[in-house]
Amino acid sequence: MGKALIIGCGGVAGVAAHKCVENSGVFEEICIASRTVEKCDALKSKLDGKSSSKISTAKVDANNVVELIYLIEKFKPDIVMNLALPYHDLKIMEACLQTRTNYLDTANYESEDSAKFEYKQQWAYDEKFKKAGITGILGCGFDPGVSGIFVAYALKHHFDKITTIDILDCNGGDHGYPFATNFNPEINIREITAKGSYFENGKTIETEPMEIKKSYDFPEVGKREMYLLHHEEIESLAKNIPGVKRIRFFMTFGKSYLTHLKCLENVGMTSIKPIDFQGQKIVPLQFLKAVLPDPATLGSRTVGKTNIGCVISGVKDGREKNYYIYNVCDHRECFKEVGSQAVAYTTGVPAMIGAALSIENKWDLKGVRNVEEFNPDPFIDALNKFGLPVSEDFSPVPVD
Q1: Which of 6, 52, 56, 141 is a good FRET partner for 213, with 20 to 30 A between their CA atoms?
Q2: How does pLDDT run across 267-299, given as a tens digit for each residue?
Q3: Whether residues 36 and 176 fall in one domain
Q4: Coil/strand/helix, residue 372
């Protein structure tokens, strides 16, 4: 039925490629492209023969618009799946605009020079995408991504009005290392060490990093400590969910992780400011990334489960109501299926689903859109079909 160009060849791209091949009725052809074509070739060798999908590979610099345009015009995909680093979002969007090709990513744009992320620069492409007759799907991983779908689904089926949203991201997995990150270390650490924020009564309220801590008893994982962070779907949900009063995002961390992170921060290893070292400029955080375990290698040693979802409150038929919608994902089962740990799996599967819905014209709104603006029902159906089953609790304990 369609063709997808996957840019990037890390853990998330590997999962997405596996799932595109599984969904061969939609993805007749995929091309996997990155700066290191050898990684793409290795992934292709794992996927060849698993279905009728035709797989090719290519070398491309995701930061080079001319190279991107050349590849897009050569392969002629129905959609470009940007599964590279968020530093590249604007360059890939520009290439999609110039070639009139649909676009999808899993995280909003970040500048390498500033640990701040917001949708402003991507939303600025909205009118240009509309005039070009193409769709840009922003944040189609799990959070952002499924978290927004969960909210849209709740509003469509269970609420007349949503007043509060708490997005809860719990990784109960154990990889055995004293310190490692479950997705790109540079992006992960920048996110955690930045100031937190939440939306309340029309305003964004900023907090110190990790200032607000709560505990929650997660189904199939247990009670965990979680910390309030800034996260991009707070911004988009505040824009797209009418009348919402408060939106917060929490993520769990273990003591060992936080202790090591604090030590690294204290000695300057989490800094993104270049320093002179033996006649060269290096960025401490990029060096730290180079010596930490590659998240793509953690799958074989990670045990336990993730639980990611939304605790939502609001009004239905004049009565106040609480609702919890979530997914539980098992690290070991993910590794058995696609050779990945659950954090990459829970991002790669939704990326495939969003791309499939675009190719099938089930998601066909033009312009630059966040996932909660689309019909959530086919996405929820696909989550249940492709390995991320949805659970619901109609009398949950709210986050205090």
Answers
A1: 141
A2: 888 888 898 988 888 888 888 888 888 877 877
A3: no
A4: helix
